[in-house]
Each structure stands twice: as structure tokens, then as C-alpha cells.
Amino acid sequence: MVSQNITKKRSLFRWEMWGILFIVLAGSLLHFTFELSGGWPPVGIFSAVNESVWEHLKLAFWPALVWTIIEYLAFRRTVDLRSGFVLAKALGAYLMPVIIVVIFYSYTAFTGDSILAVDLSSFVIAVVFGQIVSYRLVQSFRLPSVFTLLGLALWVIGILLFAVFTFLPPHLGVFRDPVNGGFGT
Question: Would 154 disulfide with which of 61, 74, 90, 159, CB 3.0-4.6 Å?
Fold first, then answer.
């Protein structure tokens, strides 16, 4: 039994590490898909429609959601939903944009402008931390199944926020495109 638990933990950890690669690569591709689609509005829900900070947060969130689904399907026979898997993955996915925002606004407060290398690094750092945190949470807690509903609710809220604010963004700095000064599509 102990041997099976260690094997399952190692396997899940490997999946989390592969998830980093998947999220970084998929997120990088999503930066260009809206433009490649000819500006087709449905693609804008999960792709960056402009260069605002908000739009770049999608590049971590959506691939993290897809990876969560892939990972869940791979482990569905061995992952106990009471383990907090869905909630842990949602919290990890929410941590990614938070880290990106904190790093971006922290360094631009000093530089006055964005630096592509720092932005790309912050994306990778955010994904690494999000994946590690979600893994640690899954390993640390057994939660009542109601927490699975909380995790699902967090995913749905994120999906709705990205969908709505893509087309109806508030006029706040995080939503402003620094290239043209506009908001949204």
C-alpha cells in the first residue's frame, strides 16, 4: 500500500511537471490565435485579443484548465475527488495570474515600462508555482466532497470572467491595451 502511494505521488508529480511544459507552450501559442483566426470573437474568449495585462492572464488560465481536464481523465480511476484535486487545480490556476500581475506591476513601478524578457519569465515562474502549489495541495488534504463543488465553481467563475471581460472590459488599467490605449477587442 505504501509502495502504491509513493508510485501514485511520483506519477502525479511527473504529470504536474509535464503540465508546466504544456501550459507554457499552449499559453505561448494562445498569444497569437486570435490574430490568426482573423479576429473571430469566440477565439477571443481564450486568446489574447490585445496586449493588456488582463488578456495575458488567459494564457495561463485556459491551458491550466485544459491540463486539469487531461490530468483528471488520466487519473480518474486513482484520484479521489475528496483529495481536493479539483479545488487544488483551480487554486493553482488562480495563483498563476496573481503572480503574473504582482510581478508585472512590481517591476513596472520601477522601470516605467514593460520588459519582454521579464514578462516571459514571470509567465513561466507563475506556471511553475501554480503547478507546484496545486500538487502540494492535492498531496496535503482530504476534503469533504463539497470542496469539489467549490473548485468547479472557481473554474466556472474564471471562465465567465474571461468571457465577459474580453468583450465588456471595465475601464481599469489592467484591461487597457498599452499599444493603442483601447479596451477589449
Answer: 90
* Cell numbers describing residue 17: 511537471
Distance CA 137, CA 134 (A): 5
- Per residue in 102-158, pLDDT (tens digit) is 999 999 999 999 999 999 999 999 999 999 999 998 887 677 777 888 999 999 999
Note the pTM of the prediction, 2 decimals.
Answer: 0.89
Residues 109-141, buried b or exposed e (16+ Cβ, 10 A)? Answer: eeeeeeeeebbeebbeebbbbbbbbbbebbeee
Q: What is the phi/psi pair of residue 168, to 5°?
A: -130, 65
Distance CA 102, CA 90 (A): 19
